[in-house]
Amino acid sequence: MKRILIREAVKADMPRVLELIRELAVFEREPDAVEVTAAQLEEDGFGSNIAFQSFVAEVEGKVGGMALVYPRYSTWKGVVLHLEDLIVTEAMRGMGLGEALLDRVVQYGSELGVKRISWEVLDWNTPAIDFYEKKGALLLRDWDVVHLDEEGIRNYLKNI
């Protein structure tokens, strides 16, 4: 069995993190949806106004997975942590990288003292759903994700 190293991502990891993000977009059937750049990830993760924390999973010196989290605030619970994405490259799935990354995210949330860690999963991604449920996560199937994209924001503002 190959040794997995989970570590905090560094600025130099961001081009590889972007590759993983693009791979996820293809998997999620939205290959053209990624707008973020490696430079933006570098600035947002390591610049003067840090927006997220990220972890990478390495096997034999190769980054094969990542997890990106950021704090949120719940009016019911207080400080919570949002897991934006947990990605394992297809070639390294089944090696334990996803579990090791999720373990690290949960440890990080505990270190911060958050009241909840939350994330979304596509309803057709049954391997991920099964994985999260086996780890003890609760799926709230009666909630829908709501968002305004850039065009939606512009249109909204035109009407106020």
UniProtKB/TrEMBL annotation:
Keyword check for Magnesium: no
Entries under InterPro entries matching the protein: Acyl_CoA_acyltransferase, Diverse_Substrate_AcTransf, GNAT_dom
GO molecular function, one term: N-acetyltransferase activity
UniProt KW keywords: Acyltransferase, Transferase
UniProt keyword annotation of Transferase present: yes
N-acetyltransferase domain residues: 4-160
This protein's name: GNAT family N-acetyltransferase
